[in-house]
Amino acid sequence: MRERRRATSWVAVVAAVPLLAIAACTSSQDKKDAAPPPPPPQLAISPAADAKNLPISTEVGLTVTGGKVSEVKLTDDKGGQVTGALRPDGSSWMPDKALKNKQRYTAQVTATNDAGKSVTQTTSFTTMDKPAKEVFSTLYLQDKRTYGVAMPVTVDFDPGVPKERRADVQRRLIVNTNPPQRGAWHWTEDGQQVFYRAPDFWKPGTTISVRAALAGVPMGKEGFGDEDRTATAKIGNKVSLDIDNGTKQMSVFKDDKLVRKIPVSLGKPSTPTSSGKMVIMEKHEQTVFDTTGSADPYVVTVQDAQRLTWGGEFIHSAPWSEGDQGSTNVSHGCTNVSAADAAFLMRTTQVGDLVTVRGTEVQLEDGNGWTAWNMGWDEYVKGSALPVPQDLKPSPAPPAAAGAPVPAAPPASNPAPAPTNPGG
Q1: Are residues 111 and 141 both part of a single domain?
Q2: Which helix (H) or strand (E) holds 8?
Q3: d(CA 262, CA 343)
Q4: How far is CA 171 from CA 53, 220, 370, 387, in A?
Q5: Of 380, 373, 115, 358, residue with least CA distance to 244
Q6: Which of 250, 296, 347, 360 could cross-link with 275 by S-S, CB 3.0 to 4.6 Å?
Q7: Residues 152 and 178 reside in one and the same domain
Q8: Number of domains observed in the structure of the chain
């Protein structure tokens, strides 16, 4: 019995030796092959520490290498937290509302990598006093309204925004659609209007949410943006009007089906109607046209009027010209229709419906109304102050075949300006 215990004990000791050796060998190899842990992310933020007199449109700028921003806290001098969100490209964190004037803010930003290592940076800054000069802005999209499929998101500025400031202003204009339809912005030459639309009309039933975050945005020598504006609206069914000067007829389409033909009288030769693609901007059951001070002064009350241009071109009821409708142009630039047809149009159309006029003596001037559709997409995207995403850029022209003749450039032309009459 004693010998068996001794043998068993010896076997156990012998067996334990190789196990220890194997374990030691494996541990050494793992340490040798293991990659070093990644370093913490590198993070830089702005504004610079203790920056002063910043606009109330200030965002927290972010530059991260080797990780992602995991938290941003912005607090005022009383500890109140400011809500906001990262921009989609991660370049900055944007407050949900404009900051307050003459207020000190502290931003604390944390970036984290996949290994869980993080780094935190902090900066404080102070906003400016309320500016003495402001640029007045208007968002032509009202909350909880329904618009036509051609409705461009339109922001108006008074005075206009200079070219060197348009990119910064455009970054503060945010549009979301459901279902998604990506679009682009286009500035008029004078900087008084900027439009947003997609390459094609909005789908009926689309929800459009807009934030024009313009309060405190620097806009050059004319001052700073006046306030933030937001709106969420719906797109209704598709309605469009096609007016042909050759036939003096209006074709009314609903969901791409012709529903009515209407005789019209357009502008006489001295006050012609503009040809082009316009959008219904306003609808009035009754309004007054007053051209006092013009070369052809008159004051007249009209019924069922729908504005097409800032210059004063309307579609409206004109019982006095019913004998000319369908045959002769006698108006001051407006589209005259009968009282019955004007009432029908008021029941049928929406602000934001497309109106196309063809074959008149003058062309619609860019910016004379919501002219976002009065050009092809290739031309439209050239009016953006920021680079257009690759998938929205116009397709490049195919290369010319070797030896193919080069077409001569068309002669330059200067279309006549749109009339500025306020209706007729």
Answers
A1: no
A2: helix 2-33
A3: 12
A4: 21, 16, 21, 11
A5: 358
A6: 360
A7: yes
A8: 3
pLDDT tens profile 26-40? 555 555 566 777 888
Which letter, b or e, does each residue of 255-281 get, where b requires 16 or more Cβ atoms within 10 Å of its Cβ? eeeeeeebbbbbbbeebbbbbbbbbbb
> Which residues are catalytic, by number?
316, 334
Cα–Cα distance for residue pair 422/424, rounded to 1 Å: 7
Q: Contact 124/49 with Cβ under 8 angstroms?
A: yes
pLDDT in tens, 196-248: 999 999 999 999 999 999 999 999 999 999 999 999 999 999 999 999 999 99
What's the Cα-to-Cα distance from 193 to each of 153, 382, 424, rounded to whole Å? 10, 15, 25
Helix (H) or strand (E) holding 249: strand 249-254
**Residues listed for the chain:** 424
* Tens of pLDDT, residues 134-180: 999 999 999 999 999 999 999 999 999 999 999 999 999 999 999 99
pTM for this structure?
0.84
Name the CA dihedral angle for 148, 150, 156, 161, rounded to a multiple of 10 degrees.
160
Whole-number Cα distances in Å, 358 to 113, 269, 355, 418, 422: 60, 15, 10, 14, 21
Whether residues 165 and 112 fall in one domain: no
Question: How many whole angstroms separate alpha carbon 419 and alpha carbon 309?
Answer: 9
Residue 108 belongs to domain spanning:
42-127
Structure tokens at 409: 């450039």
d(CA 105, CA 88) in angstroms, rounded, equals 23
